[in-house]
Amino acid sequence: MRGIFSIVGLLVVLAIVGLLVKKQLGSQVAVPAPAGMPGVSSTATPQVQSQQIQQQVKQSVEAAMQQARPMPDEK
User: Fold this and answer.
1) pLDDT for 28-65, tens place per residue?
2) Contact between 39 and 53 (Cβ < 8 Å)
3) CB-based contacts of 49: which residues, under 8 Å, 6+ apart?
4) Domain-embedded: residue 75
5) What is the rounded distance in angstroms from the CA atom of residue 21 to the CA atom of residue 8?
6) Which of 34, 73, 74 is nearest to 57 (CA)?
7) Contact 37, 53 (CB under 8 A)
8) Is there a contact between 52 and 39 (Cβ–Cβ < 8 Å)?
9) End-to-end C-alpha distance for the chain, whole angstroms
10) How many Cα neighbours within 13 Å face the side chain of 35?
11) Domain that holds residue 50
12) Is the dihedral of CA 7, 8, 9, 11 positive or negative?
């Protein structure tokens, strides 16, 4: 008898999890590009968008590397 209740309980939990997953996957909406990336066009193909984002990241990393770091005071 305990085995039957265990199996029924597992099936109920599985059904609930399945419904939650279906609800989550069904409610996915395309997220617009962040406002901080003005050079990325939303009408371009994903490959072109990816390349544009990579270039922007590379430029921002290079700009950050060019900034001088403050030197710590020696003790």
Assistant:
1) 655 555 555 556 666 778 898 999 999 999 999 998 88
2) no
3) 33, 40, 41, 42
4) no
5) 20
6) 34
7) yes
8) yes
9) 76
10) 0
11) 2-26+42-66
12) positive
DSSP classification of residue 2 = H
pLDDT at position 68 is 78
Residue 37 near residue 56 (C-beta atoms within 8 A): yes
Instruction: Tell me, yes or no, whether 31 lies in a domain.
Output: no
Give domain status of residue 47, yes or no. yes
In a domain, 72, yes or no: no
> What is the Cα–Cα distance from 35 to 69, expressed in whole angstroms?
28
Alpha helices in the chain (DSSP H): 2-26, 46-66
Q: How many domains does the chain have?
A: 1
Report CA torsion sign: 49, 50, 56, 59: negative
Q: How far apart are CA 36 and CA 54, in angstroms?
A: 14
